[in-house]
Amino acid sequence: MRTVPRVACINDLSGFGRCSLTTALPVLSVMGVQACPAPTAVLSKHTGFPAYTFTDLTDTLPAYFESWGDLDFDWIYSGFLGSLGQIEIVQQFFRAQKAKNPDCKILLDPVMGDDGRRYSTYTPELCDAMRALVADADVITPNITEACLLTGSEYRGECLTLQEAEQLAGALLPLGCRAVVMTGIVQENQIGNLTLQNGTAAFSAVHRTECLFSGTGDLFASVLCGALANGAALAEAVSAAGAFLSEVTQDTLRQNTPAAEGVLLEPLLYRLGGMHFGTKQGK
Ligand code: PXL
After folding, report:
1. Could you say which DSSP state residue 184 is in?
2. Which of 83, 185, 264, 278 could form a disulfide with 231 if both were Cys (CB 3.0 to 4.6 A apart)?
3. Which residues line ligand 1 (CB under 6 A)?
4. Average pLDDT over residues 88-116
């Protein structure tokens, strides 16, 4: 492993609303990981606001990735993808990087929707293309809405029994990914994540806040990525990300800020810098 792990972050840059790259970059940096952004789109605000500008960067990506042809990455972390062509370009980048470095791992957050609804920019064709991209991933982090969209299952809310959650997450494995972390499973006053890997299932839950803040999926996947890039086992990374999310959402709730502005990660970000994972001792 490099002294400073290197991660390619493929995601959009939203100027306001704390999500995607504005979450991933600070989280990875404070966790001691070199975060290399590949912006897929530039938005003035994320799509949860009533009005925003959206500049699609699909046409810029082939040359961008070509100029990265001499680099190799420990992890690729992919999030919001805004067009069909973009998904194909990202798939080529995944494959080129895996061919160059078989140890390169891919964390795919299939950002498609939340709370039972597809995001406004997410067409059924994009869903199909995302489903194909899952085959190249080592770890995917869908919420329940995204798991339903990817598997063509009926969405029946966020409250699932463990058996229902295992069935839904299990239906994702035939798409070809190596591990699934399904997020946002509600059980009374707890919210949990189900991990399926190597034929075993593990559920870890934390205290749940009542409010749905934007960008929590991005924060979870970013902390997960930081932990994995630092050598954490998947279960360790999932519980670190879940615990941090719980702290930050509870703190945000107390501040009473608009949900679309996302979670207030800035006051607590420093805590991620003190975490140590796997066999890596100190920093
Ligand atoms: O948090 C997911 C996300 C990422 N990127 C953009 C979004 C959203 C959610 O609304 O709009 C642009």
Report:
1. E
2. 278
3. 12, 14, 19-20, 43, 46-48, 80, 111, 119, 214-215, 217-218
4. 96
